[in-house]
């Protein structure tokens, strides 16, 4: 299966790569970017381009329906999602209807490759893996890539022999199977005979044939891993789900894939010389400016981000689900007729300092905001307390008096020895 990043390159790939069992696919990211490119084309500024929509529809809404169409595993789901797109925007539906559905929609994928990928992530991973080697000349690049392949071949073969020898399936495939086993708890099977079952999952019904390894949802046929509906039927027949996984996911297939040894080459000085003319490297011309290594990012893509942009998303309040405000200004959490909070009194640094006129003013303002209290009675109590504090406090300007002398020291003052006179030396 060959994946291209844009629909307009499909014809070029078909002309170059031809074969009876060769299938060409279109990457979903390329379709989405192509739709954005049609919508924001023209002499617009960057801000104007970002504010435009995809064929008259918000970008996020289009992406959601677009991916729902691409992930449709059967014809019924595909038709349902296409009708949603048609009701929302006729131009977007016409654009998708003009594309070959067997290149980007799972409902039209063949069942032989056991692959339901919609992106070329495997190619992107390999492209980043050889990132350092791509900067080298041709011969050095090939030698470095070969050395990397030799290392990864040996590492995977060693890991398979030492760590995975007792496992029936590869660890990642086993993890996906365990997830389907967990989802199978919500499925209810009804046997009809000859390995055919009727499975009810939520509001949908599916037909499973465990003898032919088929399910009407087509996930089992596309991936080679039993889906949750088929696992419920396999449990009814006391069959292990691991036995129904495609053979390409077994440890034996993994061992055979990395079982070959890539032989190293001798030193270039020992290579046999040929009678032909020597191959010279092309002339290198250094271009002005810094060499570009990153791809050109689309204006709608978020630079160095791992999440989708919230551009065009209508925000809602998390409390009342309103679009007029957010949680901070929600009238449910913050009603307008609520009693306002009491204002705090100013903090005095010296607790013995008498209250000033400003303090009394703040106290009166605070008291008037307390509902259901007698303000005159409270003011009289506070004024009495302030008078007591004024009477008991010490004036800070008066000097402190001497401490009383101890009777023991006063009775024995005469017994103290007379200090000796210090001699005076004249130099």
Automatic annotation (TrEMBL):
It comes from the Eukaryota. Residues 272-304 are annotated as: Disordered. Residues 288-297 have a biased composition (Basic residues). Keywords: Metal-binding, Zinc, Zinc-finger. Residues 206-238 form the SWIM-type domain. SMART domains: ZnF_PMZ (SM00575). InterPro entries: Znf_PMZ, Znf_SWIM. It holds the Pfam family SWIM. One of its GO terms (molecular function) is zinc ion binding. PANTHER family: OS05G0489400 PROTEIN, POLYPROTEIN, PUTATIVE-RELATED. This is SWIM-type domain-containing protein. The lineage of its organism: Eukaryota, Viridiplantae, Streptophyta, Embryophyta, Tracheophyta.
């Amino acid at each position: 299966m060959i994946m291209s990043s844009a629909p307009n390159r499909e014809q070029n790939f078909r002309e170059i790569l031809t074969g009876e069992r060769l299938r060409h696919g279109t990457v979903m990211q390329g379709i989405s970017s192509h739709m954005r490119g049609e919508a924001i084309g023209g002499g617009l500024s960057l801000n104007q381009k970002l504010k435009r929509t995809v064929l008259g529809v918000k970008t996020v809404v289009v992406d959601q329906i677009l991916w729902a169409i691409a992930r449709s595993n059967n014809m019924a789901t595909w038709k349902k999602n296409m009708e949603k797109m048609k009701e929302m925007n006729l131009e977007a539906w016409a654009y998708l209807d003009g594309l070959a559905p067997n290149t980007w929609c799972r409902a039209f994928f063949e069942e032989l490759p056991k692959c339901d990928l919609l992106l070329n992530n495997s190619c992107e991973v390999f492209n980043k893996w050889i990132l350092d080697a791509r900067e080298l000349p041709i011969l050095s690049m090939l030698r470095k890539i070969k050395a990397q392949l030799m290392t990864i071949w040996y590492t995977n073969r060693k890991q398979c022999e030492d760590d995975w020898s007792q496992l029936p399936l590869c660890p990642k495939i086993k993890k996906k199977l365990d997830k389907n086993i967990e989802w199978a708890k919500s499925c209810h099977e009804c046997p009809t005979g000859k390995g055919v079952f009727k499975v009810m999952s939520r509001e949908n019904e599916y037909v499973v044939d465990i003898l032919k390894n088929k399910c009407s949802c087509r996930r089992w046929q596309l991936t080679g891993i039993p889906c949750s509906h088929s696992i419920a039927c396999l449990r009814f027949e006391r069959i292990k789900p691991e036995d129904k996984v495609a053979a390409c996911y077994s440890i034996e297939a993994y061992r055979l894939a990395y079982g070959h040894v890539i032989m190293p080459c001798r030193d270039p000085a020992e290579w046999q010389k040929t009678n032909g003319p020597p191959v010279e490297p092309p002339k290198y011309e250094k271009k002005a400016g810094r060499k570009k290594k990153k791809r050109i990012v689309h204006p709608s893509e978020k630079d160095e981000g791992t999440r989708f942009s919230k551009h065009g998303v209508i925000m809602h309040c998390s409390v009342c689900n309103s679009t007029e405000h957010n949680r901070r200004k929600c009238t449910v959490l913050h009603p307008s007729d609520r009693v306002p909070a009491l204002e705090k009194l100013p903090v005095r640094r010296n607790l013995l300092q008498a209250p000033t006129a400003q303090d009394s003013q703040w106290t009166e303002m605070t008291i008037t905001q307390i509902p259901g209290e007698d303000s005159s009675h409270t003011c009289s109590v506070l004024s009495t307390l302030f008078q007591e504090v004024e009477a008991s406090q010490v004036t800070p300007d008066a000097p402190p008096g001497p401490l009383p002398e101890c009777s023991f020291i006063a009775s024995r003052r005469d017994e103290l020895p007379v200090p000796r006179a210090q001699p005076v030396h004249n130099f």
